[in-house]
Amino acid sequence: MIQSDLSKLQVFLETLPKHKTMKKWNERYIEDIKSMEGYEQAKKLSKKRSRHVNINKIADPGYNIKDFERFCNPNTIKEQCHSCCNYDNNECVYDSVLCNDWFAKNVKNWNDINRYHISFLKGETPGTPNHPGPWNIETEYILEPLFKILSNNILTMDSQPGLMVDNDYIQKPYIQIGGSAGRIHKILINLLCSDKNTFDNTIIKYVLHEMKKLDFTKYKNYQYDGKDYVSVFLGIDSPKYLINEYTDYVFSNRFFNRIANIIDNCNK
C-alpha cells in the first residue's frame, strides 16, 4: 500500500529524536533572566541590536487598520460603495470582518493565499479571513525573511522575533509554517537532519504542539486541489546559561533566515 504524503510526514515526526524536538509549546520565553549567568551581556547586546523593547511597544499595531476606511466614503450612498460594507441610514460603516472577506474574494488556490498574505504584511489589506489584523509592530523585525518564505509558497501563520522585554524576560523566536504535507516533510528533513553539526543546524527544533491540518473554509472562493495542507511549529530550546552565541542568535534573524534559506533551496 502506498503511503500518502501526510502519513509519511506523521511517521517522520513521530520518530524524530528527542534532541530535535521541544516538549512544550509554551517554551516561547526565557523567564527569571536576571538570575542567569550572561544576563548583563545579553542586555547589552539586545540594546546594541535594537532588540530591547517595552511590552507595550511590541503590542502596538504595525499599521493603522482604520486607514482602510479610505477605500470607502462614509457619506457615500450604498450604490457607490463596496459590497463589503455595512450601511447605517444609507451611510457606509466600516466593518473589518466583512472587509477582509471582500479583499479575499479572489483567493482561489494555495498560491493565491500566499500572495494574499504578502499583501497583508505589506499593509495592503486590513487583515485576512483568519486574522482580523493588524499584525503587531514587532513583526517589522522579521518582515524580510517572512516575505522570502511566502514567496516560495510556504505560508507563515504565527511568529515572533527574539527580543528582550522590559529587562524581565527574553522572547525567543518561533514560527508556524504551512504547506502541502509533502513539501513540509522535505523542508523538515533538510532543516532538522543536517550532517553538519553547526550551531545554526542544531538549535532549531520541531515543537511538539501539534501538526495542524489547514482549513480554508473562510476563503469562500477557495478551490481544493486534493492535497493535504498542514502547519507545524518551529522554535528553539531555553539554555541554562545565556552564552554569547545563544544571545547573538536570539537577537538577530538567524533563526528565520536559516528556515527561509532551507525553504528556498528545497524549492529549486
H/I helix tally: 10
Structural domain tally: 1
Average of pLDDT = 87
Low-confidence stretches: none
Q: Tell me the fraction of residues in β-strands, as a range.
A: 15-25%
Question: What is the alpha-carbon Rg in Å?
Answer: 21 Å
Order of helices and strands: HEEHEHEEHHHEEEEHHEEEHH
Which geometry do the CA atoms define?
Answer: flat
End-to-end CA span: 30 Å
Describe the structure.
This protein has 268 residues and is of the alpha+beta class. It has one domain. The chain has ten helices and twelve strands. The longest helix has 13 residues, at 254-266. It starts with a helix and ends with a helix. The relative contact order is 0.20.
How do the strands and helices of this protein lay out in sequence?
Elements: H1 5-14, E1 21-22, E2 29-30, H2 39-48, E3 52-53, H3 55-58, E4 86-88, E5 91-93, H4 96-103, H5 110-121, H6 143-151, E6 155-160, E7 163-165, E8 169-171, E9 174-180, H7 181-192, H8 199-203, E10 204-207, E11 212-213, E12 229-236, H9 244-250, H10 254-266
Parallel strand pairs: 1-10, 3-7
Antiparallel strand pairs: 2-8, 4-5, 6-9, 7-8, 9-12, 10-12, 11-12
Helix pairs in contact: 1-7, 5-6, 6-10, 7-10
What descriptors fit this protein?
alpha+beta, 268 residues
In short:
The protein has 268 residues and is of the alpha+beta class. It is 34% helix and 17% strand.
